[in-house]
Amino acid sequence: MKIKQITNFLESYAPLQYQESYDNCGLIVGDAKAEVKGALITLDCTEAVIDEAIATGCNLVIAHHPIIFSGLKKLNGSNYIERTVIKAIKNNIAIYAIHTNLDNVHNGVNAKIAEKLGLINCKVLALKQEVNSDLVGSGIIGELKTPVNTEVFLESLKTKMQTKCIRHTLIVKEKIQRVAVCGGSGSFLLNNAKAAKADVFITADFKYHEFFDAENKIVIADIGHYESEQFTKDLIYDLLVKNFTKFAVRLSKVNTNPIKYL
Fold first, then answer.
1. Confidence at residue 246, expressed as pLDDT on a 0 to 100 scale
2. Considering only CA atoms, which of 46, 35, 52 is closest in space to residue 246?
3. Contact at 8 Å (CB) between 35 and 57?
């Protein structure tokens, strides 16, 4: 089994043309024609993840976040990005990223969040204008089967998304039924969530002043970037084990979340 066969499959599920213009999805390090010995699935590719790949005999790391976002001008190990890339090259380990293209497909990152929350009647929150499809775009809007008290919902959200902290705006809704979600940094979708009459918008990376933009019309629930996307690993893992049997697929045991809570 060649790396190219794996990446072709992933790109048939989440085409590269669906990624955002700033992104860097695809094979970042390695030879597409190399034989796959094992694949390690992670949210972020770090030095510790490459060490784990070496220890487990995996020569392909599939990450959600690209290790390289902008061009490298030097490769001398001066930061974690350069050190990770150098270690991967030295050990013949390929690195592949499936990021905003997986965010933008209807059965991708946000669908996994919706599944965890038990949402039904899900639709794309903001369609990707350059793609003529109602199944491609940012975020998801869905519904709970029955309305839930807002404080009860937030406590449940904390448990289901395995987060130690939820930053939220004033509870202006007595009950929650319509739920908008966006894995990762989703503040750009707040107006879409309000227009869709969502009771709550679940995402991450809201800045202080952006919370004011809720304007008492919606509850913003910021659950953390890593926390919102952590189940993306399971999504990728399930895709691979259901479609390939000739190589080992492993979930990384490295917690790459750089944020700690006291």
1. 86
2. 35
3. no
